[in-house]
Amino acid sequence: MTKIGIILGSTRPGRNGEAVAKWVYDVAAKRTDAEFELVDLLDYNLPHLDEAIPPSMGQYSQPHTIEWAKKIDSFDGFVFVTPEYNHSTSGALKNAIDFLFKEWNNKAAGFVGYGSVGGARAVEHLRLIAGELMLADVRAQVLLSLATDFENYSTFLPSERQEQALHAVLDQTVTWSKALETVRKTA
C-alpha cells in the first residue's frame, strides 16, 4: 500500500498548523487508495543541522538523524503542511528537510499552506527545494488564509471549497507516488 506522510512543518507554540495538519489527516484517513500518517516535527526534536558530512553522502552519524531518516524513508510521498513566516516556509521545516537527501528522492510532494496570503510564498519556496531533492511536486495545492479560513486568526474553520482542493492535492500526490514506484525501485 502506498504510504503518504503528512508533515506538520511548524514547531511554534500555539501553532495553527496543528489544526490544519489534523484536518488534512482526518480527510486523508477516510481514503482507501493509500495509508496516511501524521508526522509532527516536534516529535523528532531535531537541532540545527549538526551532521558534518553533507546529507547527499548518506553517512548520518547522529541518532536523531538516523531516526528521522528511517521515518522519511518509510514513505512513498508527502503532503507538507507549512506556515508562511516572512515570505517563506518555517525554519524548523527547512532544517528538517535539509537533514536528509536520498530519503526524499523520487517521491511525490503535495502542499497545504496557511498564512496571510494562504502560505503561497512558503509553498513556492518548498517547490524550489523539492526540485533539488528530486521530489516531484504536484500542481494542486491548498492555500488557507488566516483571514477567511480561521476565526480570529486562530480557530481553523475550512470551507467545503478547501476540502475539495485538499482532495485534489491528495489525488495527485497518491497518483504520482504510485507512478514513481518504478523509479524508486531502479534508482
UniProtKB/TrEMBL annotation:
SUPFAM superfamilies documented for this protein: Flavoproteins
Gene3D superfamilies xrefs: 3.40.50.360
NADPH-dependent FMN reductase-like domain span: 2-148
Superkingdom of this protein's organism: Bacteria
InterPro entries linked to this entry: Flavoprotein-like_sf, FMN_Rdtase-like_dom, NAD(P)H-dep_reductase
Protein name, as recorded: NAD(P)H-dependent oxidoreductase
